[in-house]
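ERR on first pass: missing label on line 2. Operator R.T. fixed the label and resubmitted. Corrected input:
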Amino acid sequence: MGQEAQLLIFAVMNMLELRLTKKLWHFTMELELKLGNQILVLWGHSGAGKTTVLHCLAGLRKPSSGQITLNRRVLYSSNERINIPTRSRNVGYLFQDYALFPHMTVHQNVMYGLKNKRNKKNETNDVTDPLEMLNSFGLGHLVDRYPAQLSGGEKQRVALARALVVQPELLLLDEPFSALDKENKIMLREELKKLHRQWQIPFVVVSHDEEDASILGDVILTLEKGQPVANHISLLY
Amino acid sequence: MFFQLADWYPVFLSLRVAIIAVFIVTCLGLPLSRLLARREFYGKDFVEAALTLPLVLPPSVIGYGLLMLIGKNGFLGRFLSELGISLIFTWWAAVLASTVVAFPLMYQSAKAAFKSVDENYEKAARTLGAGEWRIFFTVTLPLAWPGIIAGLVLSFARALGEFGATLMVAGNIPGQTQTIPLAIYFAVDAGDNATARTLVAIITIFSFVVIFWVNRWAKRRNY
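pass 2 clean. output:
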């Protein structure tokens, strides 16, 4: 293996670097991590600050201090006074209740992010064909439906398609299975792992479910009052 | 004759005044309510109370206040008269009176509507690369639409029915500032019941049709 290839692997492997503190109501969160093309599960009880981490990564909330780097691009740095706005971060976000726009059809929902991208120059090639995408998610027959007419599993697939179609460099998932029944959950967990292999970008999944964490996570980080604690979930696979 | 109307001027003037007033109220009320719906700052309660005040004050108090403002010796009136403009006792004064009393209805409805939009939709749009203006026009505004429609209907009805303040600042000049409510009052005063009846019927039917149609239209959404 040549030196260039090794360098490439090194670059690809060090995709997300995060070091942050954030003052919250009852505690101060302190977190440091590095993540390559892996699935990181942030596990912990509700109120442990898991969603806050996702918000800081997406730029929806501002950390008190620290630095966030994605593929060598600085998204946030308190020292350099950098805080890239959410819309320019290129970070996909799957909300807990999916947050599909209720007044748009499945097709319009998936197109929403693409229209934003097309308005920016030089990024026109960097997108996926939305219809192809919807077909690959098994949603081809649902394009004209509104979110209210979809089942929970279908909503999640649409939300995933919407987040991924703009080719994000990082995907954040907030309790992705909490609204699903057991059967759907098992199926979508497998789909998510497959999707991760396909997309080759880091996923950060927030979950309070131990089973989800152990099945999905390449890396599991347990949060308690904003601090990482010794991991007690064994990797089952 | 049971119904008769010699002069249609009040009908057209009322419509013109109400439509212009609602236009101004919408242009001012939508941005202001969006701005204040999700922002906390020192003195916000004070600002909100001041914005809602015209809703609860007697129309005569509003009229008196507007006289102080645009009257010959008023704060704004003196400034305008130097430019050669006099608002007082013109139909523009009626527009001003209607705007002031209708504003709180638009503001309150629109603020409640903007507040009711789940913030996660706006956050989701942000993560998909949308700028704040695009989010407002493609996500926030469409989702707040039913409440804004309610605000439009209420403020239009209030502007159409404005009487007290209008009488004080625009007067009752037939063919110039006489709106339907004024025409009804002075028709009854003069014993002209046929004219009063006709105007009452017109304004009642018109208001009913507008509210009925708008409600039907707002309900017909496909999601």
